[in-house]
């Protein structure tokens, strides 16, 4: 008898079910009737090429949903071919498709005590989704209620043994998962090393060689029609004889990328030549043991063991091996680190096998050949108007959502039979949250403060305690998970460990205290109910990246992350774009005791500067409340680690998060982070040093420009002879071309003359009436630049100095290659760069023709949108230009009257709203304006703008695309 069949029989015999409590709804009133609906036109364009990439008009959404949220849901989650009658056109249809499937699953499997409970479940789930209180992960929205397989999981863990059949099966299973838009991870440590013999007498290839084939397969499936780049996690144990080769694999490839880029090849992420580089489709992680970490501390040797016999075949210096891991992470952010003993100390089903791997974002860790279904709550929805946390409602919503998540396993489909069997037998779930950073700021807590960590820990404890409490109640109704009997002692032991960690919390204020009291009561019930009935789920909680679904819920922050920046970019109904200071800031200032006049002055300062330093009237001791992931007061690396440590003891799984370090960070800094993560009890950790990777598009060439500057500096040190410049005059008869242009409605002419070899030697600018002051200034400027060119000043130097200058006239141009210009100078030197510099030089500065951008989009993008949001999605990837109701050519200033209610009430809202430059298309680019340097993030290949971090991934604010994690 299968587990599901047994559950049905048990429910039929007992004639009982779960009673569902009303939380938000009113008897006799459907949730849809309580909101105001409005029709919207969703038109999404690539701002660089001007191409319309999506258009659906007349879609129906609540009036309080933001433009970004409705755009992302329409483009990502509405099913049916565009332009046909079967295409979904309303949020009602989407929610009904999912919720009614869950209700049917609950009825069919005996979950509800009565029909009334089933109806309350339907209405409460609908209300919570409608009001953005929580969201399921993306595969639920893609698949549930459609004719497609009902895949609900975003995270998968595979397994591979030391045989060719198993290795080839690994390739096949990964391929099917990637085809569906999801990601998978696995541990390769069972495969014999390249230092061991085969049974035939030959030498084994080793796991790294087989990684090459899997990486090529992932890249091929991605370019052959998947929705985004494949998401992979590859793990190798630290005692594997090939561990050093594994550690250095991606660092060596990064050196190759740099060399090929300098030779003129297109090595941008998504570029046509990047495919020649290996191992770029996976995240790599080293699984370290406590034994190894203690050897690092002691400075002793560590044994690498044969896979077949377990004997030590080589001894290495533990500190040297650890240093190589840290150096590789410093060079290219890979590999990450996973702490094996900590992971398995918190393992609820050890009798069924060890936990050896994770999903691509490292938040889901469980048995091989398993999957995890995710959902996340929007924490800011539980903050009352009086700035207190609605603890009781939070617990009720957790119990409602975990019930729905468990029901989904009853009707879900899985990519392989082995994954389906394991998931149905262990029923792993991953409830989590988003908007923690916004909640901390709104309540006056610094992300790096003890108070902030205490509040986060208490909320996480209640989250998991409430989830396991409901899991034990479900076990009483429909039975525990099939593998519970053999793992009962271990599972109950882990529950007691969670309860003990909760008992050690010392809440510093009343808000934390109330949450902690609820959590303590929940954990007491978890232990008691579990001892009596067991548990329905082997795992209950993770903290995922919440990329796309974070935007669906109008969250300001994703997962456990702090706020990205104090000032954000926002699209408006009608096509305009605005700079917004979040409403969380005045809310926090009011909480800290500031008066309205002071708040207005501080907000104005933030809107102008992008940070709080020297804000009028703001006390320096309050600066920490407004620290963000980026900016003048960026949160420290150990601040990120300690926040993770505050939450980790209360999670079944782990945390998707990258610890960011500045470019100036050293290898020793990364070593400190890795050691501290182990000491503080984390399960996994990944680091990213700013500008450490070459193979990703940056707005201005980033490290490329710095490499050239460093090379020039080295050359200058070696040479002591100083040469005087010599002017190379133009020939009497020379070739020239004249370009007419219009910038922001103002017309002009650019005439450029060349030497016989085609090199630019002079230019003339005609702008304004002859004899006017402006015309005279243009003549003088043209002469100065021409003389500089003739004395050997490289054109690219002028391009670097004069592009991005901002002054009027600015805006749209009539040039298809340079659609927007911040000034006449910006346009002129972009045009000159396109006409007279080679591709390599101008690509470093982010200057491309329309044809080149289109070709890059075609070769590097991923067909439609079906990512797995290990969210969800994630994960992680970011940025884009989405637009509703207006064509891309509409000027932002034409839309200043369209700052509608949805633009100041969604998410955290807006305290200060102002127009932004038409060159800015995302929060990452807005941060560049404040910081004066480029954000180290990839481009959204759908929309063409900068993405921003979400957990260990990147997500696009406009279209919801992610960088590929889970």
From TrEMBL:
One of its GO terms (biological process) is DNA biosynthetic process. SUPFAM superfamilies: PFL-like glycyl radical enzymes. Residues 153-688 form the Ribonucleotide reductase large subunit C-terminal domain. Residues 42-132 form the Ribonucleotide reductase class II vitamin B12-dependent N-terminal domain. Residues 731-835 form the TSCPD domain. It catalyses: a 2'-deoxyribonucleoside 5'-diphosphate + [thioredoxin]-disulfide + H2O = a ribonucleoside 5'-diphosphate + [thioredoxin]-dithiol. Residues 867-876 have a biased composition (Acidic residues). InterPro entries: RdRp_reductase_class-2, RNR_2_N, RNR_lg_C, RNR_NrdJ/NrdZ, TSCPD_dom. Keywords: Cobalamin, Cobalt, Disulfide bond, DNA synthesis, Nucleotide-binding, Oxidoreductase. Its EC number is 1.17.4.1. Pfam families: Ribonuc_red_2_N (PF08471), Ribonuc_red_lgC (PF02867), TSCPD (PF12637). It comes from the Bacteria. Catalyzes the reduction of ribonucleotides to deoxyribonucleotides. May function to provide a pool of deoxyribonucleotide precursors for DNA repair during oxygen limitation and/or for immediate growth after restoration of oxygen. Belongs to the ribonucleoside diphosphate reductase class-2 family. GO terms for molecular function: cobalamin binding; cobalt ion binding; nucleotide binding; ribonucleoside-diphosphate reductase activity, thioredoxin disulfide as acceptor. Its cofactor is adenosylcob(III)alamin. The lineage of its organism: Bacteria, Bacillati, Actinomycetota, Actinomycetes, Micrococcales. Residues 867-913 are annotated as: Disordered. Gene3D superfamilies: 3.20.70.20. This is Vitamin B12-dependent ribonucleotide reductase.
């Amino acid at each position: 008898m299968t587990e599901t069949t047994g559950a049905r029989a048990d429910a039929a015999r007992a004639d009982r079910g779960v009673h569902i409590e009303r939380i938000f709804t009113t008897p006799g009133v459907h949730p849809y009737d309580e909101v105001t609906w409005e029709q919207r036109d969703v038109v999404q364009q690539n701002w660089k090429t001007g191409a319309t990439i999506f258009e659906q008009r007349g879609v129906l959404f609540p009036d309080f949903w933001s433009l970004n949220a409705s755009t992302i849901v329409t483009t990502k989650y509405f099913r049916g071919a565009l332009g046909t009658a079967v295409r979904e056109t309303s949020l009602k249809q989407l929610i009904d498709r999912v919720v009614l499937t869950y209700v049917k699953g609950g009825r069919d499997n005996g979950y509800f005590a009565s029909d009334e409970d089933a109806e309350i479940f339907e209405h409460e789930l609908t209300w919570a989704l409608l009001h953005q209180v929580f969201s399921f992960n993306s595969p639920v929205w893609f698949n549930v209620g459609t004719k497609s397989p009902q895949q609900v999981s975003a995270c998968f863990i595979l397994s591979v043994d030391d045989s060719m059949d198993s290795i080839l099966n690994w390739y096949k299973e990964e391929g099917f998962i990637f085809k569906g838009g999801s990601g998978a991870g696995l541990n390769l440590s069972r495969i014999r090393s390249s230092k061991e013999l085969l049974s035939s007498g030959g030498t084994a290839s080793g796991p790294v060689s087989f990684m090459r084939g899997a990486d090529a397969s992932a890249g091929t499936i991605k370019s052959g029609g998947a929705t985004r780049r494949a998401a992979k996690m590859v793990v190798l144990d630290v005692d594997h004889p090939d561990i050093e080769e594994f550690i250095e694999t991606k660092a060596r490839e990064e050196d190759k990328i740099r060399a090929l880029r300098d030779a003129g090849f297109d090595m941008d992420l998504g570029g046509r030549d990047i495919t020649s580089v290996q191992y770029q489709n996976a995240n790599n992680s080293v699984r370290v043991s406590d034994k190894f970490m203690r050897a690092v501390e002691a400075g002793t040797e560590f044994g690498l063991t044969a896979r077949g016999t377990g004997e030590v075949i080589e001894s290495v210096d533990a500190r040297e091996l650890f240093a190589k891991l840290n150096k590789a992470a410093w060079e290219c952010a890979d590999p990450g680190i996973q702490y094996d003993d900590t992971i398995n100390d918190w393992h609820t089903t050890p009798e069924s096998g060890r936990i050896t791997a994770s999903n691509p974002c490292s938040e889901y860790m469980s048995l091989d050949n398993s999957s995890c279904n995710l959902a996340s709550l929007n924490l800011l929805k539980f903050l009352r108007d009086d700035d207190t946390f609605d603890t009781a409602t939070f617990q009720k919503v957790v119990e409602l959502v975990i019930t729905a998540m468990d029901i989904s396993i009853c009707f879900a489909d899985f990519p392989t039979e082995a994954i389906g069997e394991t998931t149905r037998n262990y029923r792993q779930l991953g409830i989590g949250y988003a908007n923690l950073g916004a909640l901390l700021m709104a309540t006056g807590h610094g992300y790096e403060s003890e108070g902030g960590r205490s509040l986060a820990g208490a909320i996480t404890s209640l989250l998991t305690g409430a989830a396991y409490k409901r899991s034990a109640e479900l076990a009483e109704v429909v039975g525990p998970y099939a593998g519970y009997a053999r793992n009962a002692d271990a599972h109950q032991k882990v529950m007691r460990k969670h309860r003990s960690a909760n008992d050690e919390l010392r809440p510093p204020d009343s808000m934390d205290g109330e949450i902690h009291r609820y959590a303590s009561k929940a954990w007491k019930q978890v232990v008691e109910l579990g001892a009596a009935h067991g548990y329905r789920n082997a795992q209950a909680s993770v903290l995922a990246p919440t990329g796309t679904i974070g935007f669906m819920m109008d969250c300001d922050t994703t997962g456990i992350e702090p706020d990205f920046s104090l000032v954000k970019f926002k699209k408006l109904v009608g096509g305009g774009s605005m700079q917004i200071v979040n409403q969380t800031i005045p809310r926090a200032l009011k909480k800290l005791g500031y008066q309205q006049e002071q708040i207005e002055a501080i907000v104005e300062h933030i809107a102008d500067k992008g940070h709080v330093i020297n804000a009028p009237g703001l006390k320096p001791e309050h600066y920490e409340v407004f620290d963000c992931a980026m900016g003048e007061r960026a949160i420290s690396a150990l601040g990120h680690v300690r926040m993770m440590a505050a939450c980790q003891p209360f999670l079944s799984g782990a945390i998707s998060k990258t610890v960011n370090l500045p470019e100036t960070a050293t290898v020793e800094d990364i070593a400190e982070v890795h050691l501290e993560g182990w000491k503080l009890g984390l399960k996994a950790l990944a680091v990213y040093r700013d500008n450490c990777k070459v193979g990703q598009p940056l707005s201005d060439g980033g490290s490329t420009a710095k490499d050239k500057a460093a090379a020039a500096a080295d050359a200058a040190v070696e040479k002591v002879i100083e040469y005087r410049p010599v002017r190379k005059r133009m020939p009497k008869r020379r070739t020239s071309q004249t370009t007419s242009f219009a910038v922001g409605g103002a017309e002009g002419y650019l005439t450029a003359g060349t030497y016989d070899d085609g090199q630019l030697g002079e230019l003339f600018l005609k702008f304004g009436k002859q004899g006017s002051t402006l015309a005279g200034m243009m003549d003088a400027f043209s002469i100065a630049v021409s003389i500089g060119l003739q004395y050997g000043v490289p054109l690219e130097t002028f391009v670097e100095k004069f592009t991005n200058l901002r002054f009027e006239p600015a805006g749209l141009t009539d040039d298809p290659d340079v659609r927007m210009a911040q000034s006449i100078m910006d346009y002129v030197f972009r045009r000159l760069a396109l006409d007279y510099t080679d591709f390599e030089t101008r690509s470093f500065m982010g200057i491309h023709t329309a044809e080149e951008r289109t070709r890059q989009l075609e070769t590097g993008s991923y067909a439609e949108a079906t990512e797995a949001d290990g969210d969800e999605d994630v994960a992680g990837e970011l940025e884009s230009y989405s637009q509703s109701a207006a064509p891309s050519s509409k000027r932002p200033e034409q839309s200043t009257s369209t700052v509608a209610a949805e633009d100041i009430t969604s998410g955290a809202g807006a305290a200060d709203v102002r127009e932004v430059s038409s060159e800015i298309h995302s929060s990452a680019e807005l941060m560049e304006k404040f910081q004066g340097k480029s954000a180290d993030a990839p481009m959204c290949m759908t929309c063409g703008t900068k993405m921003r971090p979400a957990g260990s991934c990147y997500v696009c604010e406009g279209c919801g695309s992610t960088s590929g994690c889970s």
